[in-house]
Amino acid sequence: MSDSVKREYQSPLRSAQAQATRRRIVAAAADLFVSSGFAGTSVDAIADVAGVSRKTVFTAVGGKTELLALALDWAVAGDDVPVPLAARPDVIALLGLPRPGAVLDAWAAVLTDIDARVDGLFAALECAAASDEVARALFDRVSAQRREGAAAVVDAVAALGGLRDELSRSEAVDLAALFTEPLLHRRLVGARGWSRRRFETWLADTLRRQLLSRPDSR
Questions:
Q1: Chain centre to alpha carbon of residue 5
Q2: CA 25 to each of CA 32, 90, 115: distance values in angstroms, whole numbers, following the listed order
Q3: What string of pLDDT tens digits covers the 218 residues of the chain?
Q4: How remote is the C-alpha of 11 from its chain's centroid?
Q5: pTM of the entire structure?
């Protein structure tokens, strides 16, 4: 067998192994960021938990900020497939629903799933952003992405004629972004023990009452 054929055969295996190592590193980093905070987590600790060298952490992903950014991206998506949230089938489907209330109900369901994966990481990022400039830049980027998502939902509701008349688009996006803050899930579900269903129902009801001209319409 020629060297070129060997390389061709071995490449997919090496790629799969590299991705598995990357997943292990990101998972270790995510767990430590949630349990110990961004400042309290070292690259050495991440390497130790992941079972790799410090050099491998930097080679596979990067430093702590890159690790937190990737952990957040994967937690939001629910996997490591490089497809943005806006292009995911459930988000595309909810933006195409025919009734304003149904759009918000479906959004609340999607966000409740996301929050369960992301709220601890978001809390770690928010805390880090108070004292770390690089973390602050990441926090601002994540916040801007959240606002873009809220704006897409508000625009879908407005296109269906469901938005409250007294709300400007900017105000509606402000409210949508505020009430879908991941830390609300952390406080109500994590700290206060609300069930997933209770939180989802509360979130959908709150979004309806804050944004819709007819909150109870189905």
A1: 41
A2: 11, 28, 22
A3: 445 444 545 577 788 898 999 999 999 999 999 999 999 999 999 999 999 999 999 999 999 999 999 999 999 999 999 898 889 999 999 999 999 999 999 999 999 999 999 999 999 999 999 999 999 999 999 999 999 999 999 999 999 999 999 999 999 999 999 999 999 999 999 999 999 999 999 999 999 999 999 877 65
A4: 31
A5: 0.88
